[in-house]
Specification:
Blueprint (H helix, E strand, L loop, with lengths): L2 H20 L10 E5 L14 H6 L8 H9 L6 E5 L9 H11 L4 E6 L4 H14 L4 E7 L4 H8 L3 H16 L5 E9 L7 H11 L5 E5 L15 H15 L4 H4 L6 H15 L12 E4 L4 E3 L8 E2 L7 H5 L2 H9 L12 H5 L12 H5 L11
Helix pairs in contact: 3-4, 4-5, 5-7, 8-9, 9-11
Bound molecules: iron/sulfur cluster (2 copies).
Length: about 375
Amino acid sequence: MNVENYNRNLSKLDFYLKKYNARHTYLKGTPLIISFLVTNKCNLRCKHCFYHETIDTGNVSEALTIDEYRRLSLSMDNFLTGIFCGGEPFLREDFHEIIQIFQKNNKMMLADSASNGQYTNRIVSQVEKILKASPKQTYSLGLSLDGFRDTHNEIRGLGTFDKVLETWAACKTLKRYYSNFELYICSAMNTINENEMSAFIDWAMLNMKPDKISLIKTRQEPRAGDEIKDINMDNYLSCIKTIEKYTQQLDSSILEKPQTYLLSSVNNYIFDGEYCNEKLFTCYAGLHGGFIDYNGNIGVCEVLPTIGNLRDHNMNFKELWNTYLATERRNEVNCNQHCLHCTHESEGLLPSIYFPPNSLKYERIKNRPSNRSTGEC
Ligand code: SF4
Ligand code: SF4
């Protein structure tokens, strides 16, 4: 790959980020990346699920309606990325409409969602509607696979692995017709699957050919208990290396885009942080990232206490995002006890990694010592 081209692309990205950043100097504008949990309904009861309390006890009928999403979008500026998950997002028959609203009203360039992949027909038909409606905006679907068949089924339930493969095959067909479709594997790592995860990623890259693999470290308070979070970080490092092996095989035009290193960089920050027993990134949640729960509660991220509910503010995001309480919550970012060892990929690292002192430069990855367990913090 040509390093000069890479640096040129990085400068272009910096230019746009600075322009975006200027919007946030006085009034807190709409963040770059917003995470939406569109439902608390789920057909599975996975062992690693951190949303289980809301799934078990939350009131499903409190979910924001399509009209409320429309009003919400009209109160927001344009933003880059929306992450739409749940629960199982495709359980909402109007899921595609939610995404279309933000694509149209907020020029959202990337919509990303993760699904447990159990409803093949429903997923394929909704994904196709999204892809057809906005051919210039990317839709990225992650199907969850947490290891080989027996392990995945142990974590998510009998028969779930084969069902995901069926959905995967159907989605692959869509990829032939829609260039705005990105299909990837989302794997949550914990003590149940840690020993085989690297081998599984290797197998999946060769046999399923995903556009990428998103490796998530099980976090917060999983249904099966905190102990399943306690993985051996050598296993995590081995997964990073496997993913990077495949990244290096990509075309040079892709390798020259800084965003190609985004997920690897996120994983490296997590590895380094766990190794040094401290959070090594500066979190920009509340500024460049925000969280909107299924019932309209909003927060700087899903971990810190909420700022308030959109319904109490006539669905006006900017009004609620600029209240006194919002400022107080924002001031807690990086200082709250939950932040000290945060490994939150989607709401912590993703909206933060573009901004200094964080970095997604590939050199960071390239220069990692081959055996970190002998390295220094
Ligand atoms: S991890 Fe996802 S699929 Fe599994 S129970 Fe939780 S929300 Fe549902
Ligand atoms: S560091 Fe983690 S817990 Fe703290 S605000 Fe950021 S995402 Fe939330």
